[in-house]
Structure formats: structure tokens, C-alpha cells
Amino acid sequence: MKESKIMGKYQLDDKGKAQVRRFHEKNARKQGALKNSKTNLLEKMKKIQESQKMP
């Protein structure tokens, strides 16, 4: 059998790789901000619940 060097279905050239890298960099910041806001909301909710438990 002859091994063929066929490019995979989703292999990108340099221009495509740069575009994908920019996309991930852009969305990584959004995910970080989203994660921080979620943790802040959870902390606030815990404080509220604790304050409501106290008579």
C-alpha cells in the first residue's frame, strides 16, 4: 500500500491559523470575565443566605 500525504479536512494555512488564534484570544478574555462574574455572584449569594439564616 502506498501512503498518501493528504491534508486533513480541517488543516489550515498560515492565514487560517492566525484567524483561529485571534478568535481564541478574543474569546478567552470573555470566558475569564464571565467566570469571574459568576464567582462574584456566588459569593454574594452565599453572604445573603448566611445573613438570612441569622435571626
Task: Give an overview of the whole structure.
The protein is built from 1 helix and no strands. The chain has one helix spanning 14-53. The longest helix has 40 residues, at 14-53.
Strand and helix order: H
Question: Can you give the helix content as a percent range?
Answer: over 70%
In total, how many beta strands?
0
Backbone structural class? mainly alpha
Strand content: under 5%
Number of helices: 1
Short description:
The protein has 55 residues and is mainly α.
Relevant terms:
mainly alpha
Topology:
Blueprint: H1 14-53
